[in-house]
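To close the section, here is one more complete example, presented without commentary so you can practise reading it yourself. The ligand is inosinic acid.
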Amino acid sequence: MLGRVVLSRDQIANVVERLAEEIDSDLEGRSPVFIGILKGCVYFFTDLTRCLSHTVEVDFIQTSSYGTGTTSSGTVVLVKDITVDVRDRDVYLVEDIVDTGTTLADLIQLIEARHPRSVQIVALLSKPSRRKIEVPVDFIGFEIEDVFVVGYGLDFAERYRNLPDIHEYVPEG
Ligand code: IMP
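Output:
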């Protein structure tokens, strides 16, 4: 069941602008490739990259999702790889939400093995109390408590991604 609004579209827009400003000043002199982690990143990724004043290359990667539940299986499977060569590039991995950290930890390893110049992590949301693996998140939009959220790209069983605000999702029963 769809619950209260956790972050409104206005709050999201403000934080996306703030993150873009921070990232912009970090981009000076770099050779940036922005890699979005599908599918949850799409709204955040497109809003964020459009706010940047630097030209950046974009690509996408997809891992297996949570399926139909609200807890992580702890196993990440690559579903779609990037096509760009990241060797000697400055990679910005863009994630919707960091929960246990498993997805990012695996993806950082995968990207590092391809010899980029640097890897930075950008996440709209973080649930620090749920972390099982510490991952270095360089740019964070909001830290939230341990609630399951949907909207602005985030889903429950592939539903609610296109909601403009982020809501709590309360499992039935
Ligand atoms: P992690 O590997 O446990 O950090 O999980 C990261 C992924 O789990 C995210 O990219 C989301 O796809 C999904 N996820 C984690 N928490 C939520 C949530 O509250 N709502 C929707 N998806 C979530």
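Once you have examined the tokens, check your reading against these statements. The domain at 9-149 is CATH 3.40.50.2020 (Rossmann fold). The chain has one domain: 9-149.
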